[in-house]
Amino acid sequence: MEEVLKFGGDKKTEEKPLNLELKKELAQIYKDDQIYRELMQSSITPERKAEIIKEKNLSKEDVGSGLIKKMDDQDQENLVKVEKIIEKYGYPGKSMVGEPENYAVWNVIQHSPKIEKYFPLIKKATDEKELPFRLYAMMLDRKLMYDNKEQIYGTQIHSIFTTKDGKAETLSFVWPIKDPDHVNELRKNSGFSKTIEDYAKDVGGIEYKKYTLKEALELQKKK
């Protein structure tokens, strides 16, 4: 693509136009990443649910017991696509594809088993202002949780699934935070609009409770 020249007073600056073809591709990837997760939200309206079912041609099984598999299959397909994009372009950030398409690759990596591999790329994109800091913070928290370490920003809610007397039970809680007494101040300074208490309620549907790392790891052993 040709460069677009911009003029500011007597100073001439150069700015590359957005890659519109890639922007369109990433918009579809972002949509595919979110659509099955949207079906899982308790707040979804019946109308929107019916719209998604029709769009994706889903059976009753797909929407029920098969939903997790549908989402996992889509995640794997998305990962193949974004790895090819990364190989060709590096991280497709704000200056290349605009917003919110610059979030697309981040979302796919966040939902993949390859956070460890691509975390340095996310850090670099954040440092270069191609991604907002809060997305870096969310991936760092998830990486720490996967490493059985305390998270920093309180963005990760962990669920443990167990069976008791033949019935499935789910325990969801905010993964232990390194400095829980100051996490709300840190969240505010990092671009998060909600306190840890509101986040737990609005996103996880739970009441925030402080867990130590030892308690969380013990709960995991019992599942």
TrEMBL record:
Taxonomy, superkingdom: Bacteria
Listed InterPro entries: DUF6624 (IPR046732)
Protein name: Uncharacterized protein
Organism name: Chryseobacterium antibioticum
Lineage: Bacteria, Pseudomonadati, Bacteroidota, Flavobacteriia, Flavobacteriales
